[in-house]
């Protein structure tokens, strides 16, 4: 059996703020109490997807299990298990530090992420740091990992609609049942203890199990909110902290989703303009307006008649509904990168020329069997209990109808993604708001794109102002969610310098250019699949 390591409960707030202290000193420290062993094949596979000739984190990553209290107020009560990983440094001698990393979500597993960050880091960072990942409570390899309804996400799903009465009736019932099913699936009371504050205490349990006085931390997307909360609870335990793709403290979580609707609409419009620029490749229209019109016409057709495609080799049937089209093309609004733009562009072009195999490969969803909903459970478990969502459906209608008029791309799909919070079977708490926390680390480094749709820049700027002494590097023309290790040397050099030396830009805000729009491959259409992107995103 795998050895479980039990740690004492973490209670209360940190007692003092952190100044500009460097990372944890390289003096002798207690040995880690974690029992490292080989990782499961799926964790190794997730890391190997980013292996290179120079960096093969999949061959270095190790796993361990850590037992923590379900309820930190009852340290001797029920325990749950976190999956923790380490990808050790390559340099001789002790590591400069151990960096705990979180890819975002909430609901995303993060055990693989330490190995992935190792692979994406410079040789100097690989030599210096141990990268520590973990699956948050309730998610992936942590125990228990809850599933609520294995058929919830099977295609074709009902059309998201535009706030019309028919769609509302169907989706309100569907999401209410999902919330009820999650309540039934929770056998130990996890739903009442799955807030960000619980995960922050888990991070400190990991710190102590590692034997560290302080940890360094890198959080992307939702990981920036987890980082904020950790810094508020345990300011003395933070060495260096980098936050990438930042969530504003005031919008958690209802207002944050409303803002996403606006920014995703803007970014998908930008993508339509790029498709028009490359009409000689994709043949979807020569103007942004023409491509936009064609897309929304296609979505309306799919709302009435989803495309069903049967693979001649496997016999597997996939469906492209209006919902799956929206969900998958949303990737293009997340990141302005070839791997996020080419697959949906090629999928649309495939439909235009009658290639339903290519269209289904890009946008199709599973129609039979069981569809893993653990990540969706994890998303709702955190967001629905971090804060009380509006309980008056009329408010949801008013707010989203107003946005829908100008920004129709994502609005009602996002409503239904979050609608389980209307009926979530656990009591909501009060979110940590760092604007009202007096003692915080003053050496935090932030990164953001000016047109990040998932974590819009106004929220990042609000957080920067709240984190006194922080610095933020901004891609002034960027449209990529989370900009570290996305191919911009101007960004990555600042990340390296910060963790290796503690030095940051002198100005509070520093602006750099992004790498710009991708250029389609010379041979035109390439792979259409968007299924292997491995998104580390807020949703």
Describe the structure.
This protein is of the alpha/beta class and 539 residues long. It folds into 2 domains: 1-8 and 31-146 and 186-212, no CATH class; 153-185 and 251-430 and 514-539, no CATH class. The protein has 18 helices and 13 strands. The protein has helices at residues 41-48, 113-120, 123-128, 165-185, 196-210, 222-233, 254-277, 279-282, 288-304, 322-329, 331-334, 338-352, 356-363, 374-386, 393-406, 411-418, 457-466, 489-501; strands spanning 4-6, 62-69, 79-87, 97-102, 129-135, 215-220, 238-244, 307-310, 317-320, 365-366, 445-449, 471-475, 509-512. Strands 1-2-3-5-4-6-7-11-12-13 form a 10-stranded mixed sheet, sandwiched between helices. A 3-stranded antiparallel sheet has the order 8-9-10. Strand 12, helix 18 and strand 13 (509-512) form a beta-alpha-beta unit. Helix 5 (196-210) crosses helix 6 (222-233), helix 7 (254-277) crosses helix 9 and helix 9 (288-304) packs antiparallel against helix 10. The protein is globular, with a radius of gyration of 23 Å. The two termini are 34 Å apart. The relative contact order is 0.15. Residues 1-28 and 534-539 have low confidence and may be disordered.
């Amino acid at each position: 059996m795998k050895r479980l390591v039990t740690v004492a409960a973490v209670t209360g707030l940190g007692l003092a703020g952190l100044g500009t202290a460097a990372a944890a000193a390289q003096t002798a420290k207690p040995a880690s109490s974690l029992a490292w062993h080989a990782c499961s094949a799926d964790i190794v596979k997730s890391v190997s997807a980013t292996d290179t000739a120079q960096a093969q984190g999949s061959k270095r990553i190790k796993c361990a299990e850590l037992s923590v209290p379900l309820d930190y107020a009852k340290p001797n009560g029920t325990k749950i298990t976190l999956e923790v990983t380490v990808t050790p440094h390559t340099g001789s001698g002790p590591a400069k530090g151990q960096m705990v990393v979180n890819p975002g979500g909430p609901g995303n597993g993060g055990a693989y992420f330490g190995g992935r960050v190792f692979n994406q880091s410079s040789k100097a960072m690989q030599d210096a740091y141990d990268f520590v990942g973990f699956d948050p409570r309730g998610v992936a390899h942590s125990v228990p990992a809850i599933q609520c309804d294995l058929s919830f996400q099977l295609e074709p799903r009902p059309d998201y609609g535009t706030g019309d009465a028919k769609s509302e009736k169907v989706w309100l019932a569907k999401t209410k049942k999902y919330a009820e099913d999650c309540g039934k699936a929770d056998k130990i009371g996890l739903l009442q203890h799955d807030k960000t504050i619980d995960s922050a205490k888990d991070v400190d349990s990991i710190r102590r199990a590692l034997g560290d006085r302080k940890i360094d931390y890198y959080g992307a997307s939702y990981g920036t909110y987890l980082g904020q909360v950790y810094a508020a609870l345990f300011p003395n335990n933070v060495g260096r902290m980098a936050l990438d793709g930042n969530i504003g403290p005031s919008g958690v979580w209802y207002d944050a989703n409303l803002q996403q609707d606006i920014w995703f609409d803007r970014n998908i419009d930008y993508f339509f303009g790029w498709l028009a620029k490359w009409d000689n490749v994709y043949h979807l229209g020569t103007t942004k307006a023409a491509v936009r019109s064609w897309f929304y016409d296609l979505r309306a057709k799919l709302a009435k008649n989803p495309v069903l495609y049967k693979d001649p080799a496997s016999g597997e049937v996939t469906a492209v509904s209006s919902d799956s089209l929206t969900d998958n093309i949303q990737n293009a609004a997340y990141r302005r990168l070839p791997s996020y733009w080419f697959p949906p562009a090629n999928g649309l072009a495939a439909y235009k020329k009658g290639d339903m195999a290519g269209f289904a490969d890009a946008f199709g969803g599973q129609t039979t069997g069981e569809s893993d909903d653990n990540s969706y459970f994890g998303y709702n478990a955190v967001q629905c209990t971090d804060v009380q969502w509006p309980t008056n459906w009329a408010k949801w209608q008013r707010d989203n109808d107003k946005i829908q008029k100008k920004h129709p791309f994502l609005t009602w799909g996002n409503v239904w993604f979050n609608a389980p919070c209307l009926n979530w079977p656990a009591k909501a708490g009060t979110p940590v708001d760092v604007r009202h926390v007096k003692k915080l680390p003053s050496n935090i480094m932030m990164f953001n794109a000016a047109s990040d749709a998932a974590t819009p820049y106004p929220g990042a700027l609000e957080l920067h102002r709240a984190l006194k002494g922080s610095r933020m590097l901004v891609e002034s023309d960027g449209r990529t969610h989370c900009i570290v290790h996305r191919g911009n040397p101007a960004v990555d050099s600042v990340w390296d310098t910060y963790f290796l030396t503690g030095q940051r830009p002198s100005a509070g805000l520093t602006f750099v250019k992004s790498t710009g729009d991708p250029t389609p491959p010379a041979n035109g259409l390439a792979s259409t699949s968007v299924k292997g992107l491995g998104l580390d995103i807020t949703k």
